[in-house]
Write a structure and sequence with these properties.
Elements lengths: L2 E5 L5 E3 L2 H5 L8 E7 L3 H9 L5 H8 L6 E5 L2 E8 L12 E7 L3 E6 L4 H12 L6 H35 L9 H33 L4 H67 L14 H22 L4
Parallel strand pairs: 3-7
Antiparallel strand pairs: 1-2, 1-3, 4-5, 5-6, 6-7
Helix pairs in contact: 4-5, 5-7, 6-7, 7-8
């Protein structure tokens, strides 16, 4: 167990230890919140044998691959939500999962990697700044997850702005390889943020009927759902911008290549007459005109210079340069 609390009738919290849970000491409280390590063999064993949850619920909480969702099951809710991975050395778009079983008398949250939003709500509980009902705790966690997701997507939006500025600046050079990677990161967040909107909408829609969430809790959940909807629109916009940015980068690179090929073609056209004449006069055969004249070389150089100038004038007249 990472941390746990027992709440009495007045909502006052008491920290719990793992021994309290194993010995059943948490049963004397009106409500408990247990935050467990999903990979812990002891936690898994307790969930299967002593938690009182049915096998289907436990398997849903412990499964490896899952998407955000909220589903009513019996007298509680199975809730999976995701948030940005803010752990040291991790990629922020590699979202971390927080799985929850929320019932009137118990809130069980499980994570494989640290989730800062759960720690934020823990601090609010310890400071007495949040209602300790299950619905309020779930709403608080959803609100903190959304806060951090907003920060990540705002950073993505700023990154897209920076790439656009670099593409518009002729002096700047953007590495094309960063744009597909940027788009991959955006798509990775998008893949989970859209079902998260549906999960929060389900809690808002069905929460009042279950009696688990108060009007205040539903207000927070509705606000989180609205913000996630806005973030979904934002991530769609960023995804489209990343596609356009990559296409523009490819187009700019193609134009640069074509410009270089055009310059080489012009140079080839300018020096083609010179190459022909020098090749013709370079053969070692008798009868070359001017071979015995002291001014023949100067005359040939002058003629080649006139040829170059005439070629440039012709290309300019044809508006090729």
């Amino acid at each position: 167990m990472i941390f746990g609390f027992g709440f009495d009738e007045t909502g006052h919290h008491t920290p719990l230890t793992w021994d309290d849970v194993l010995e059943g000491g948490h049963a004397k409280y009106k409500r408990v919140w247990l935050h467990l390590d999903r990979h812990s063999a002891q936690a898994q064993g307790w969930l299967f044998r002593k938690s009182g949850l049915d096998r289907v619920t436990v398997q849903a909480l412990l499964q490896e691959e899952t998407r955000p969702r909220a589903a009513r099951h019996g007298h509680g809710y199975l809730i999976n939500l995701r948030g940005p991975n803010l752990n040291e050395g991790a990629d922020v778009e590699d979202l971390v999962t927080l799985r929850m079983w929320a019932a009137e008398d118990v809130l069980i949250t499980l994570r494989a990697r640290p989730v800062r939003s759960a720690s934020d709500v823990r601090k609010l509980v310890e400071a007495g700044e949040i209602d300790t009902s299950t619905g309020a705790l779930v709403a608080g966690i959803a609100d903190r997850l959304t806060d951090r997701m907003e920060t990540v997507l705002d950073d993505f939006d700023d990154e897209a702005d920076r790439y656009e500025d670099e593409l518009l600046d002729p002096k700047a050079h953007i590495d094309r390889s960063v744009l597909p990677e940027f788009r991959r990161r955006v798509l990775q967040v998008r893949r989970h943020i859209m079902p998260q909107r549906e999960a929060l909408s389900t809690l808002v829609r069905d929460g009042a009927q279950s009696g688990l969430f108060s009007e205040q809790d539903l207000l927070f959940l509705r606000e989180s759902a609205d913000r996630i909807t806005r973030l979904t629109e934002l991530v769609e916009n960023i995804r489209e911008r990343s596609t356009v940015l990559y296409e523009e980068a490819i187009q700019n690179s193609t134009e640069e290549t074509n410009q270089r090929l055009f310059v080489l073609a012009i140079l080839s056209a300018v020096f083609l007459p010179i190459s022909f004449v020098t090749g013709l006069f370079g053969v070692n055969l008798g009868g070359i005109p001017g071979s015995g004249s002291p001014v023949a070389f100067i005359t040939l150089v002058a003629a080649l210079a006139v040829s170059v100038i005439a070629t440039l004038i012709l290309l300019r007249w044809q508006r090729w340069i």
